[in-house]
Amino acid sequence: MPVKRGKNLIALRLDEGEDLIPSLLEALGDTTSAVIISAIGMLRDIEIGWLGPDGYEKHQFSDPHEILSISGTVNKKSDGKAFIHAHASLSGRNMSVIGGHLFGGTVNNTCEMVFLVPEGLTFERKVLVKGEPPRFCPENK
Predict the structure, then answer these.
(1) Rounded to the nearest 5°, which phi and psi values hold at 58?
(2) Does pLDDT of 55 surpass 90?
(3) What whole-number distance in Å separates Cα of residue 46 and Cα of residue 8?
């Protein structure tokens, strides 16, 4: 997994068989606040979901799908670790599109991603209302 860092960018390539989310967390290292600005490639063994009133409804797709887009943020959790909150649009062989909250997947061939690391900001993940999931909370450093 080649990873290169610029002033405010992290660019990386994941290769065949890499587990997407753990590999991204490894590539980010100690970076806990970032924005996904570009993603292309393919995934298989994908898990995506939709947040309903009773929590996430998760669905698995084993066949390879082209990444049309992945957008989202990297947030610092209360334990200090990074959390990737990403949504994806993916196209199957028949060009039908699926999408939702991206829980994981395995790289099929390649995945190229670029993250923007914000200057002067940190993205925290905090519980704002008891019983609700943690929310995105941008803060000035």
Answers:
(1) -100, 145
(2) no
(3) 29
